[in-house]
Design brief:
9 helices, single chain, about 0% strand, globular, about 260 residues, mainly alpha, about 70% helix
Amino acid sequence: MHEQSPVANLINQYLFDPAARALGYHVGGEHHAVPAHIVMILLISLGLIVFSLWLRRRLDVENPSRAQHLVEVFLDALQGLMQGVIGKEYRAYLPLIGTLGIYIFIGNILGMIPGFLSPTANLNVTASCAIPVFVYYNYHGIRKHGFWSYLAHFMGPVWWLAWLLFPVEIVSHMARMLSLSMRLFGNIFAEELIIGSLNQYIFPFLTSIPVMFLGLFASTIQAFIFVLLTMVYISGAVEESEAHGSGHQAEHPASPPHQAQAVAA
């Protein structure tokens, strides 16, 4: 699908296209220097950086602003959820999970603003979130338990089933990247398609406002599911090898990775 965004076209026309021509690239017409979803990502990133710097200068313990209250409520809720899923060491993973949650949520709802589009309606964007999550939780699992100890949990609770369970677990973990990226992409793409069709072909803009509220709800749910699965995967990587190493994994067949697969399903 060819992405169209008046805002992205305008930014390309006056910023990126002239820069590309100056570097010797041929751009023009509908072929801009930077794809629309990349322009949206840059806008989100710039907006988050500016907001963070602005909020940091106005943090006040005695007289907090409304923006500070909002951020504190979000952080309290997120930390409570992370502590329940990951455990007492949750703070080490807060920067990634918090950033992912805010970034994905804003990306999901951006397409509801006229002239913009949701970058998360592009599979490349959702994959760029899912792949780092996969690398991140495996890295922390290896870092905490060692490479061979971490790899041993893929072989299952009994050695004589290792030849069967090992490839199944490997494929299951690899499929998490596809699951995370496709779920988010599919839902946001469908949401944008429905709202755009209602606005352009069927109903006037005001009539489709109830559908946009439904889209806002769906966008929030999708961001929540993404970060929740990230927490579950981290919890499984950090805790599962520990259970395997102590010889008690056979007593707990519902280990964290299997719980993660149940949530992902």
